[in-house]
Amino acid sequence: MSLDTIQKLMHSEMAVVNQLILDQLRSDIVLINQLGQHIVHSGGKRLRPLLVLLSAKAFAYQGERHFNLAAAVEFIHTATLLHDDVVDESSLRRGRETANSIWGNEASVLVGDFLYSRGFQLMVAADNMRVLKILADATNTIAEGEVLQLMNVQNSETTEEAYMQVIRCKTAKLFEAAAQLGAVVSGCDETQIAAMAEYGMSLGVAFQIIDDALDYTTSSETMGKNRGDDLAEGKPTLPLIYAYEKGTPAQREIIQQAIEQADASQFEAITQIIKSTKAVEYSYQLAHEYADRAMTSLIEVPELPYREALHGLAQFSVSRSY
Q1: Longest Cα pair distance anywhere in the chain, in angstroms?
Q2: DSSP alpha helices (H): ranges in the chain?
Q3: Fewest Cβ atoms closer than 10 Å to its Cβ: which of 36, 80, 179, 191?
């Protein structure tokens, strides 16, 4: 099932969530409205709230609490994007100027805080302590992931294990939470909740590995961000880590200097090194392993169109070009 087909399947449910997001963005503070509208309308795929809805519908949930939770997850995700762009000094996201490049770092950080707190207001409305624990733990883990990533910046000796720890915390944890939430509000048993957690975590890992590989295989226009941004920020992502490990001494020196100096001037040369060491192929292979793991975990999900949609999301995560 393609992403377009999945989105059509969930169109009416996502319409409710999108309206809820717009309603909850309203504030008496004009700058919050302006900046919030900018980031929300910036063309995101809304995979995380979609995952909450799919998880709930996969277990035949008939209530409405999943709408609030889907919106809460999107607010948490959006807050992390605002803070990420400040930390990374990014100027482009999803093909548009970042909020911090328009309104400044201070406004972006503070509106990010507003979105975090709005997300928590929405999750409290669900009146479910299990839900609160899942999202509180996820938010805390995401913050830890951000710090871990910061510690790895400009460190050419970063290992694949350290990289995986970062993406599990920083990216995959919110996917895991989103998948769990639908199962929890549906009243699923612990085996089913654990299966959805495994699905979400594996999906998130696959998604992030591909995201990092695309920096070396896709144009800026297709990705919606500047090629070489990761290198310019001194981030040792999986393709770089693998190329550094497998490259010749001369190639390793080029990569080492680029990472340690956060220098993207050698981006094209490094792209060729990544190509010669088959670092992208390795990254895709690992991502496919995690996507397969995600799909295998769906054995606990009833045979409904929604299981096929969850299967399709895993396939999309490793076949996309944006």
Answers
A1: 60
A2: 3-9, 11-25, 30-40, 47-58, 65-88, 99-103, 105-124, 129-152, 160-167, 173-185, 190-214, 220-223, 229-232, 238-246, 249-260, 267-276, 279-297, 305-319
A3: 191
For residue 218, being part of any structural domain is answered with yes
What range does the domain containing 70 cover?
Answer: 3-310
Looking at the domain assignment, is residue 316 inside a domain? no
Contact criterion met (CB below 8 Å) for 291 and 315: yes
The CA radius of gyration of the chain, in Å to the nearest whole number, is: 19
Cβ burial of 158 (10 Å; 0-12, 13-18, 19+) is: buried
Let me know: does 205 contact 290? Beta carbons within 8 Å: yes
pLDDT for 225 equals 62
Contact present, 102 and 137 (Cβ < 8 Å): no
- Name the strand (E) or helix (H) holding 97: strand 96-97
Q: Domain holding 212: CATH number?
A: 1.10.600.10
Say how far residue 81 (Cα) sits from the centre of its chain.
9
Q: Residue 92 falls within a domain, yes or no?
A: yes
Q: Does 317 fall in a domain? A: no
pLDDT in tens, 171-189: 999 999 999 999 999 999 9
d(C-alpha 159, C-alpha 228), whole Å: 20
Nearest-angstrom CA–CA distance, 203 and 316: 10
The count of domains in the chain is 1
